[in-house]
Amino acid sequence: MRQFALALLVSAVTAAVYAPIGLLWWRRARVRDRGLRLVAAVELEPYHSALLRQEATEAAAAELVLDGYLRIDEEGAAFLTGQGRDPARAPAHPLPAALLEAVRRHDPEPVSIGWIDGYDEDYRERLRAYRRERDALLPDIPRMPGGAGNLLLACGSCVGIALVMLFWLLAGALLVTGRPHGPREWAWTAVAALGLAALLLAEKANRVVRERTEPGDPLGDLVRSDAHPALAALDEEQRTVVLLSVGDRHTWRGTDTVVHEEADDEGDEDGEDGDEWLDEKVWWEDAYEYRASDEDMDEDEPESGAATGTAPPSSG
What we know:
The protein is 68% helix and 2% strand.
């Protein structure tokens, strides 16, 4: 009789433990399938996808280069072409149009795309506005159940595990010390033993359920599936200069300047040390002027040499 009662009790506890696991599997499978269906219906706009990958500025610069609005030299400085300076012409998409407007604000000074992406507030606000507009069209992916972050549920689970382990120890002790008589009691003993073995595997079963119903990141996989068409259309040389310009946030700053309020005071107090500090901190303000002056010096050298040459002797 004890074996029957033990088998019945162990079976009831085992069912009570595995019922929430089965319910969790059912709920997570439904949520996963629903999320996958929602993501499968999403049609991401290429620039939105690039923005989610943090590549929107690279894609916009690539489109401007391909369409002839920009020229980027081997040092990463971006210049407007004749087409880029034409105010009547602009890309149809708002992101490359915003980048072109930002470059126009710095014309005729060279500017790096990275400087615009990092410090041009008008361009950054246009990016944020575009992302808000496009993110509002994304479906609301259902949250996967599982109790993550629920402190009360976590504490309850810990208490439940402790009680189940205590029951397992007591039931195991009764099972080992019992002396079954006849095939029926042996059968009840086998049922109790199988139930106790199933209880030992409950934690593993819960882990397997979570692993097999894990949805992953379907929206992220969709975002990372394809590169932007403009980036894919660049040749190797164009890709190199575009990435160089996007990664440069300090060398080419266009018409922007940085004013150090404490520079004059430190220069007066420290003398030459202050001047050296200022030389190190102040950015290069006029790249065009330096280039132009170098070219003028190269052109004037032959003329100056001819002017200072030895004059022919006079007939007198």
